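Two records follow; treat each independently.
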Amino acid sequence: MHHVRNLLSIGLVPAVYAACECGYKTNTGDVFQYAITTDFSNTDIASFRNSSDWNIRSIVFGNSASRPYATNYTTSNVDISNGSLLLTCSAYDSASQSVPSAEIGTNRTDILHGSFRATYKVVQKNSGGAGAVSGFFFYANDNQEVDIELLTREDARSVTFTNQPDATKDMYLPNQLTHSDLNDYRFDWTADHTKFYVNNVLSDSKTTDIPTKNGSLMLNMWGGSTFAGNPPPSSDVTMSVSTIHLYFNTSAAHLSKNWAKTCAKNKNAICNVDSQGLQSNTTSTATISSTTLSSLGRPRRGGQGGKKFGHHFKWAAAAGATLANIDG
């Protein structure tokens, strides 16, 4: 159980899995080695800032050809209230000529394949929220990325599924759902495919541009680019997240070796992580468009391309400490 304990966030609600030394089995039959489960119902922002699993990003992405306004990821736009993590894209700030935004990511950068789930909704104060993007994604580099995105400039029933650099599709959410509904968003990434789910309904499947490199999982709410929308938001938009569940394998050979030894020694049953099977879509899941990213004028890096400046980036050191703890 040592590897599971060290994956739990300090000060956050512990995982419900007591002993899963042989992995986590999903309702598609896939089994993954590790888990990070985060429930925001009984924690606060101070505890989250000290989490061993997550990092709050603070960096500015400046202007570029695809970004007329700077994107300013700031820790002040990340909060926890009423049992939810709040990632806010604020109204455009004319003084700094930037869009204040929010992003979190895993300290672990060794994630390679997995089933990744987050339950969230996007809340706009008024119609001035157009020009923002909610992202839930895996990132290794600009050509190794998997995204689920909700764009506030589009129909409130739409969702974008992407394998970078080019495999992208705009879909309607199943069962007439909207961005403001609290939905379970999920993507499964294996060596052969990526599959995208909304409330356990399979909504898209891709077999091209599948990432082959290890990286991190991230969630963000941001604006400033032509992809997000121009003009930028004139009022706040918030991504309200209630839970995040990540089940994944590691790219680190020594960690996989230790995991296998622990499993063989303890011989505990694999934990089933899904209480129900896949669901059906009672309405048509229509494809809005299927295009290449180059035609969208989209910035890279989770929608964050452009000149970087003023950054405070602690991921590498934190990830190293986390891996040391797991191996210990």
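The next record belongs to a different protein.
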Amino acid sequence: MIAKTLSKLTPVLSVAALLGAGCQGQVSGTAGDEPGLRTAAYSVAPWAANPVENLYSLVDDGPVRICIEMAPGATIARSTVENDLAWATWEWVNAVQPNSTASLHADVVFTCDRLVADYVPLFDMTVIVYPGPGRAWAHGDVMDLYDGEPQLYETVLHEMGHFFGLGDTYIEGGGCQPNQPPSVMCNATFNTLQPDDVSGARQAFRVINPSLYFGPVPIAAEGSGRCIDASAFGTADGTYIQLWDCWPGPLSNQVWDYNWETKLLVGEHSGKCLDVAWSGTENGSAVWLWGCHGGPNQQWEYWTDGTIRSVASGKCLEVAGFGTENGSAIQIWDCHGGSNQIWHGH
């Protein structure tokens, strides 16, 4: 390791100021081959490259405008469909309100108006309600619903998730994909968003509207562009912390929430803390995931030079051996300013 040291700098005052200069994710992508990786989860979702399919590109401009078309034979009351759509929109928008620098609009206006001259629609999405049983479907800026659905609101909440950029996480025939916690994107049996849904909604919003977002972010190493990652979506104490490709979509086992008061870095997927193993203070001490207890080995400071320093030792979080490959270990070491010790938001 390089033995050069840096003069002490003032800890950075804003996570956004330190991490905001990093790369912004793209709005499409596919999963990789990490063991246990869920391949169609919200976190790596094949969510819409077409902005019209992601309502977060609209909600900061005004209310969401929805056109409901009742197909011949549909018997459900239009007011029931309107109520379900309004509540589902409110839930998804509300999920990211605390993480936005702007006041978002969860209001819904039901209109099918078009400009008379060229028939350009004055609404953001169309919902078509068909009679009888059938399989709901969200495609483009259209949602198909069936009035014979016994859990209509749960289905609407699920399908609305696609418009907010999230992918399906279910297995055909029943159940959730491996390592996928239960969520409305896994099945349509929930009538409110689950923790994984909220996490995914926030990260989808972050990528679509980075200038408005100030919540938890993935953290990438300057030397490789890869992210701090809890291996195989682990949530148990002692889960290996490594370097791994930063997925284009919101990947919750790479998303970390920093609390300026407690100085804890908490993994969104687990609620557990980035922890120096065995309270180590020596060079090469490993870091892992551990239940948050607030001890100095779990406290970190962001510095203006791009380093993240352990309060217990004053040493820097780094990628071991200047590694740049997937699976490279994360540890602490004397601060030297190398690219393996400089971190930024992804």
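Discussion point: The chain has two domains: 15-25+215-345, 42-211. How would you locate this feature using only the token line?
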